[in-house]
């Protein structure tokens, strides 16, 4: 398989801008409390814009409600049943971003077809159904360019742009290719340490001019050359990072949660302190035993820490455990 593209003068200029902005963002002083809020905002905005591209209706209020775990009864279709599709999409989008941050930030692991399938499982399976349409040919084609990116020396932004457009061009699945492709672009950026403090959002750039976004994708497929797409992608990434820098310089918070949401009680602080050593994990039962509280109180404390992005949730049901971010 021959990926055709050139690192044009425009691309070089945009990459230079990206690298300079990255340094400015990484070195800008932010208090831990403000950084926590800005990261939470980023996940909120990414989720809203990501689903907006798919024309999935979602209000900011409902997104905040779900992501902060303050879920009112009205958001369930019938008592005792599962969340509706839109709410599942919100939570699954967050799970996908958490997976990328947890498993792929500065990772030396190889990106394989199994990883692409996992992104689908996390972000799409609950609402679009199990993987379907994947053929031996498309899987082989995906594997070819994934191997190319693994062996290549391109800038992380170039790798991210190629991963996104080639996932969409290959269309390995019957549904969800655009969603998986966009997530895969983030994965390549995080893998190379271009997480930009977990605070930048690419989807807003796409959605604000959705016609151009779709046109660029179509041109890449029709022409068989990715140069124009890479110019578009790196230009958009630079714009997203400019906005991130402006947000952190001026402390522009997007959410309207009460101040109490960000405050930790003494037990929550103690839980975090008990997990300071790398690799430490904790369960609901262990919190019950260690702090002599009820299971409900323990669960509320752990969920609060997870909703703030201070703990990562692993597993499901009785096998759930938590680790430090």
UniProtKB/TrEMBL annotation:
Where does the record place the Fido domain?
Answer: 111-235
What Pfam families does the record tag this protein with? Fic
Residues in a coiled coil are none
Q: Which domain of life does the UniProt lineage start with?
A: Bacteria
PANTHER family reported for this sequence: FIDO DOMAIN-CONTAINING PROTEIN (PTHR13504:SF38), FIDO DOMAIN-CONTAINING PROTEIN DDB_G0283145 (PTHR13504)
Protein's name according to its UniProt entry: Fido domain-containing protein
- Source organism of the structure: Candidatus Woesebacteria bacterium GW2011_GWB1_41_10
């Amino acid at each position: 398989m021959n990926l055709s593209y050139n690192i044009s003068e425009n691309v070089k200029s945009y990459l230079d801008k990206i690298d300079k902005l990255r340094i400015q963002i990484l070195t800008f002083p932010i208090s831990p409390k403000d950084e926590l809020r800005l990261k939470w905002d980023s996940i909120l905005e990414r989720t809203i814009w990501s689903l907006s591209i798919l024309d999935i209706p979602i209000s900011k209020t409902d997104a905040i409600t779900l992501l902060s775990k303050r879920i009112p009864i009205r958001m369930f279709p019938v008592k005792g049943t599962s969340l509706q599709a839109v709410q599942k999409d919100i939570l699954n989008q967050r799970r996908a971003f958490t997976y990328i941050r947890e498993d792929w930030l500065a990772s030396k692991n190889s990106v394989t077809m199994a990883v692409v399938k996992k992104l689908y499982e996390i972000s799409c399976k609950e609402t679009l159904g199990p993987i379907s349409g994947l053929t031996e040919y498309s899987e082989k084609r995906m594997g070819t360019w994934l191997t190319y990116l693994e062996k290549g020396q391109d800038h992380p932004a170039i790798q991210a742009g190629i991963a996104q457009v080639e996932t969409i061009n290959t269309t390995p699945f019957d549904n969800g290719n655009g969603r998986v492709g966009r997530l895969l672009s983030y994965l390549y950026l995080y893998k190379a340490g271009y997480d930009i403090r977990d605070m930048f959002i690419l989807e807003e750039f796409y959605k604000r001019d959705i016609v151009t976004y779709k046109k660029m994708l179509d041109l890449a497929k029709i022409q068989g050359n990715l140069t124009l797409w890479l110019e578009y992608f790196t230009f958009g990434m630079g714009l997203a990072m400019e906005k991130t820098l402006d947000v952190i310089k001026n402390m522009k918070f997007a959410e309207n949660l009460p101040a109490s949401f960000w405050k930790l009680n003494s037990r929550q602080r103690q839980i975090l302190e008990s997990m300071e050593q790398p690799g430490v994990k904790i369960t609901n039962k262990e919190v019950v035993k260690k702090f002599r509280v009820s299971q409900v109180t323990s669960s509320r404390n752990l969920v609060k820490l997870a909703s703030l992005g201070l703990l990562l949730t692993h597993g499901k049901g009785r096998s759930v455990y938590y680790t430090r971010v």
